[in-house]
Amino acid sequence: MIVDEFDLGPRKKAARDLAKKLIKDIKIKEAPVSLQTVISHLQKEFDLTVSKIDLSKGISGLLVRCSELDTEYYAIGFNQNDPWCRRRFTIAHEIGHLLFGHTCSKADGSKANNEKEADVFAAELLIPTSLIKKDFARLSNIPDLAKLYRVSEQAIGIKICDSRLL
Predict the structure, then answer these.
(1) Number of Cβ atoms within 10 Å of the Cβ of 96
(2) The domain that contains 30 carries what CATH number?
(3) pLDDT in tens, 48-79
(4) Model's pTM, two decimal places?
(5) Could you tell me where the beta strands, DSSP code E, fall in 57-143?
């Protein structure tokens, strides 16, 4: 069996912990997580804009850090052609890159690990473990849970397995 080093390292825990802290800071108590609320909260610390853009197929989103003289601002762009649940995950993923301070790097393996870290962050932000455990106990139907959390059925399925609810 091939073991993914990312699954064993502290980065996965750090990604989940960062999302949990953000959820706690914003006082999110139920699904769905409002990305507008998350973005508004982050705008207190970061000059951040989020916009839909026309990206080529295969590119879901991007985070850009811009510096002008004494100011720094960030822009998240998401592919307007992606399904709505994919756009939500992309925005959450790019927020993960922002909070972790990920930058483009040519170092071997760092890009792949940064992408995995942002994915874990996004999954925990959109489908908090504390909430999915309660909601799975009462719904336990993947399509209904996906609608409740406003994510894809695939994302809910992965989260249910990762949370060991099945």
Answers:
(1) 26
(2) 1.10.10.2910
(3) 999 999 888 889 999 999 888 888 899 999 99
(4) 0.89
(5) 61-68, 71-79
